[in-house]
Design brief:
about 180 residues; alpha/beta; 6-stranded mixed sheet; 3-stranded antiparallel sheet; about 30% strand; binds guanosine-5'-monophosphate; binds magnesium ion
Length: about 180
């Protein structure tokens, strides 16, 4: 029963290590180097997408040496399920004005692309000086709408992943590595 998942215990699903914390750390450092270089002399405003990006953003910003500000937005498309509905809404919007700012959106993962597409269009309407997207995990084979990714951590196959901020029905966000969820 989907509403009462107790994964390992029921033997229905298991977690397979996909990307280790060391690999993630190395790649986050490379992304930070690129961002430090590209935004030199600028003062970007980072917009993290809750909840999945909270660990990525926390690790990333501590490697950034440029002056920056940041805040979070929350969008909803998934609920507790695993398929995007294609219907995205902004549940928690921007507190600060981004007009004239160099905005960098930080996302955990792009799957269908609906969420990123919606959010980037929504932010573009507010006249930022520039608007870019940084995504840690990308599943290009799942794309329904095209998304331009400026900084990409990893391309991953069509698997459902958890850990490093990503959840299944609220669980597993605290796992330091990235796991693929496999049904047995
Ligand atoms: P999209 O709108 O691109 O289909 O999906 C974007 C959102 O769906 C992500 O920000 C993330 O919250 C969730 N999502 C997509 N794929 C996965 C996945 O493999 N694992 C988890 N935990 N969430 C995912
Ligand atoms: Mg997300």
């Amino acid at each position: 029963m989907r509403g009462h998942l107790s994964l390992r215990e029921e033997g229905e699903m298991r977690l397979r290590l996909l990307i280790s914390r060391e690999e993630i750390e190395r790649r986050v450092r490379e992304l930070a180097d690129l961002i430090n270089r590209d935004y030199r002399g600028k003062n970007p405003h980072l917009v993290g997408v809750l909840t999945g990006s909270f660990i990525f953003l926390a690790d990333l910003v501590r490697l950034l040496t440029i002056p920056l500000t940041l805040e979070f937005v929350r969008v909803a498309s998934y609920g507790a399920g695993r398929e995007s509905s294609g219907e995205v809404k902004l549940l928690l919007g921007l507190a600060d004005s981004i007009e004239g700012r160099d905005v960098l959106v930080v996302e955990d993962i792009v799957d269908s692309g609906y969420t990123a597409d919606f959010l980037m269009k929504e932010l573009a309407r507010r006249n930022p000086a520039s608007l870019k997207l940084c995504v840690l995990f990308d599943k290009p084979s799942r794309r329904k709408v095209p998304v331009r990714i400026d900084y990409r951590g990893f391309e991953i196959p069509d698997v459902f992943v958890v850990g490093y901020g990503l959840d299944l029905a609220g669980r597993y966000r605290n796992l330091p590595d990235l796991y693929a969820l496999e049904e047995e």
